[in-house]
Amino acid sequence: MAFNVLKFAREVRTEASRVTWPTAKETVQLTGLVLAMVVAAALFFLAVDGIIGGAMRAIFGAGG
After folding, report:
1. pLDDT at position 42
2. Domain containing 45: what range?
3. Can you tell me the distance from the alpha carbon of 22 to that of 28, in angstroms, rounded to the nearest whole number?
4. How far apart are CA 18 and CA 24, in angstroms?
5. What is the C-alpha separation between 18 and 11, in angstroms, rounded?
6. Is position 17 within any domain?
7. In a domain, 38, yes or no
8. Tens of pLDDT along 9-51?
């Protein structure tokens, strides 16, 4: 079975024409949402790290 490059290129072009691209407004909104979630996750892990670090210092009496 041979690979037909021209057929593949036509199929790729057809599929690419079916893609629904987001508008500029949607892109900005989704980028803001992703950044907000990254900040939320960072703050969550910072808090959890602080709690675990405090617990380890309390248990073992060591650490910075």
Report:
1. 98
2. 23-64
3. 10
4. 18
5. 11
6. no
7. yes
8. 999 999 999 999 999 999 999 999 999 999 999 999 999 999 9
